[in-house]
Design a protein that fits this description.
The complex is a heterodimer.
Chain A lengths: L12 H16 L6 H12 L4 E4 L6 H12 L3 E5 L6 H5 E6 L4 E6 L6 E5 L6 H13 L1 E4 L2 E4 L5 E6 L12 H4 L4 E3 L6 H10 L15 H12 L5 H16 L9 H17 L7 H12 L12 H16 L7
Parallel strand pairs in A: 1-8, 1-9, 2-5, 5-8
Antiparallel strand pairs in A: 3-4, 6-7
Chain B lengths: L2 H21 L6 H14 L9 H26 L2 H18 L4 H21 L3 H36 L9 H6 L6 H24 L24 E2 L4 E2 L6 E7 L13 E7 L1 E3 L2 E3 L9 E6 L3 E6 L11 H8 L1 E7 L9 E2 L2 E7 L22 E7 L6 H5 L24 H11 L5 H15 L1 E2 L2 E2 L7 H9 L1 E2 L1 H14 L4 E8 L2 E3 L4 E5 L3 E9 L3 E5 L17 H21 L3 H61 L5 H20 L8 H11 L4 H17 L4 H22 L1
Parallel strand pairs in B: 13-15
Antiparallel strand pairs in B: 1-6, 2-14, 3-9, 3-18, 4-10, 4-16, 5-6, 7-8, 8-11, 9-12, 11-12, 16-19, 17-18, 19-20
The chains are: A alpha/beta, B alpha+beta.
Chain lengths: 326, 728
Amino acid sequence: MAAIAPHPVDAPAATLVAAVRRLETSIASVVRGKPGAIRLAVTTLLARGHLLIEDIPGVGKTTLARALAASVGGSFHRIQFTSDLLPSDITGVSIYDAAGKTFELRRGPIFANVVLADEINRTAPRTQSALLEAMSEGQVSIDDVTHRLPTPFLVLATQNPVEHFGTYPLPESQMDRFLLRIQLGYPERAVERALLRERTGEDPVTALAPVIDHATIAAAQLAVERVRVDDALLDYALAIVDETRKSAHVAVGVSTRGALAWTRAAQAHAFVDGRTYCVPDDWKQLAVPALAHRITLPAAHDSLGRARAEAERAIADIVARVPVPT
Amino acid sequence: MRFAATHKTTSYLAVAFAFLAMVGGGTVSPLLVLGGAAGLALSWFIEPPRWNLDRFAWVFTVVAALGLIYSGLLAVSTGDYLGHGGGFLIILTVARASTRRAARDWQQLYLLAFLMLVAGSVLNGELGYAVCFFGFVVTGTWALILFHLRREMEDNFLLRHADPRASQRVEIRRILESRRIVDRRFLLGTGLTSVGFFVVAVIFFLSIPRVGTGFFFRGKGGMHMVGFSDGVKLGGHGRLKTDSTVVMRVKISAREFHGRRAPYVYWRGAVFDHYKRGQWNRSPSAPSTTSWPERLPGNRERRYLSLPGINLAGEGALEYARANAVLQDVWLDPIGADVLFAASTPLAYEFALPMNERRPLEKNDEIRVRHDGPLHYRAWSILEPPPAEALAATYSAPPGAPAEGDPYRQLPPEITAATRAKAEEIVAGATSDYAKAVRLRDWLQTNLSYTLDLRDPDGREPIDFFLFDRKAGHCEYFASAFAIMGRVVGLRTRSVNGFLGGEWNEYDGYIAVRAGDAHSWTEVYFEGQGWVTFDATPPGQADRLGRGSGAWSAKLRRWFDTLRFQWNKWVIDYDLTQQLSLFRSIGKKLSGGGRAVSGAGKAVTRFAKRWGPLLGAIALLGGLGWYWRRTRGRRRAAPPTRADRERSELARLYEKAARRLAQRPAAVTPRELARQLAERGAAGAAQLEELTEIYYAGQWGGAVGDDALARARVLAADIDAAARAARR
């Protein structure tokens, strides 16, 4: 993995796809038995989005984030969100340098290629919004100075759906900033056994080397935007979006921004799948991860998990009845 | 449509149709009908969440028990088991509909509705029954399908919850509220299927051998209407009504009696010989009808009347009748009298013998058959009266000939001297009986007027009152006055009740005789010529209802009457005889087919020579127009490219191959379908997965190239072969 030739921006799609495949393989060597989740994570990266992982602790959320960071070969920061975390703890502060009589910027952990925002719902809303603003703008403002964040820039936020004491659930408008929301879930029995047998104490992530360079990622991100989308497929997507707005099981349906994000995700998904054109399956497979966190349910639910299950079923029901274009 | 609401609506519709089918005959007491309808309507709103049913259940149990006692007592005391049984069914249905809770209650409701429908088949012989029956077939099918789904779902709930470990939430409420189970397509498709079944059932109905309805049918026991009555009583007060209810439909063989301008026919029915105090009766001394019966197959009988002057007894009678008489096919509704009607003067009647019935008393050349339902019979009549010269030449009894012992010359003592003197005055100088009869008739027609207003004679002799005081009356007065005055001057007369004329129904070619066509006239006996009809009522006055107008409302009414007629003829009164005649006519049509084909061939050739070029040009223009419309959209777009052709061929290949393996639901993508088939291990699934990807590339990705297209063809062929092999 030593020699990775940088690809020009207009590199042929096949070489880019091969690089993306390498990235997937590299992550999969550490995160076992989760090809679906890995693919969605890579899709998010290529669509220039951010990923929300909702799951209980100890199923590999952090491992996934670290493996991705290690394989991409960039800086990686982890922010553990707590109730006393301040916005400046994320973005950074200007510190007066007495010797030079100037303000010197102390960059926060947000300045990294891959940021793992752990248990994002444990911190106060203003800290959350600092992170989310950085995610959507790709830049942070400290003392009236705007600083661009490095590229590629990917935030993997995690949320624990079970606990709800002392948490601040993300408001719907903030949820919209995440391209996809996924769960990891427990691995299969066989995978888990293999994991127990082989894990000898050494952290396997440390053994990972970068398999793709940033220029290639940028080229792939550009290529994703050129993935062909037929009008009939857009109509299909809009028909589903329209259903979420009309459904009796949904209070507020998917917004236009949501539909746009879904389409971008579908393009990235097609590209990761090795195609230069979208097919109906791209939308269909991404419908739940891309839409379920963007709708509001009519009734309030006592736990995040219940609400998520309800929303995902509403989306799945709609997708299961809208005719596929042929 | 919400599932639960649709199920409830269709179920109530089915029950309502059954209810209407039963009560439409009018035999169930109106109190129960109204109460039942109100109860059913109220029960719609009694729903478990709103009402605590357990608290009210006992009310309905008590109601049902009381209903049973009430209906049982009534049935035993009146002997009308069926009618009161139907009433009890209504009570049970209301009780059940008001306490419905689970699937079982709906099931009982359907059973009750079905029983009502069955009861209706006997209680209701109206055309409305057919409509209700059809409605029940369609709505009942919907209701039963939805009921089945609902019960399955509720059973599933019980099963799942029987085992606490595997307990899984079956969301009954959510399913009941779901709008996705039933939609317009479900109702339409199922409704059409029901119609199909209905048609098949009708074919079965027509082809399975049947006995007649006389045995089962228990109609309304005769209509009570203004019009014909089996007896005459002069007097009374008020105004005669004109009732346009059709009581008899006659298909008559002679074409001169078809149409609205055809001559009036006197439909002769009850005949009376004895007059006393304004009443006409049949006296015990009147001669009984003499006739020669002939038994026919199928428990039918033909009876030839023995009429003076026309002796039809024995061999050759039917030939004579065929040659001279006019055949009438009569469908007579029950009118509360058992007399049969036929055009004057009837020669013979043919009818199915009623089972184990005593023969009614027949007098004065009447024919009577007891019947509760509609009756179909045939009659032959001579419609042409004997020529006037022949009648004038008959022997006339000398004046003052003794009348004792002759029932047709009976005169009650209360006939006033004025009446007698008037009769003598009118016929003074007349030499023959015929001349006397004509003079009397003409005098009555010209000097007295017709009215429907009745006025009571107040104890005076009615004929005297009519002749000298009121100077106006209805047909019974004219007929009675003529008969009595005729008897005064030595004629033998009798009074006849029947119908005159009727409305011509152009749709099915029959004469519809209405209750308001009832009429009264007189018959006079002439030696050697028999009884001859004399109508003393001023002509043109008696026909109050007319022969039917050309207005569209009248046409519509006639058209509906045709429907009722067909219903009575082919459903209510459908029996073996009709069945045979139906099959015979079908057979005739089939055998006639060969001849018809050659004739039709010639006609087609003639037609084609004359109109062919024009029709061909129209068809060509139409076809071009259609093609242009179809292709216009495409023409306006860019011309089809190579990629488009590739795309459409791939789509065709894919669709055909996929259909060989499975039916793809609209919301399932081709890739998902292929994966499902592969997981199921279906033959050809691997090839379909590959073909799907090529199809996707063509459909959504643009061009695929010749190699991929060739590969797609191979794959499609492989899938076809695999599907074939799997089927074997």
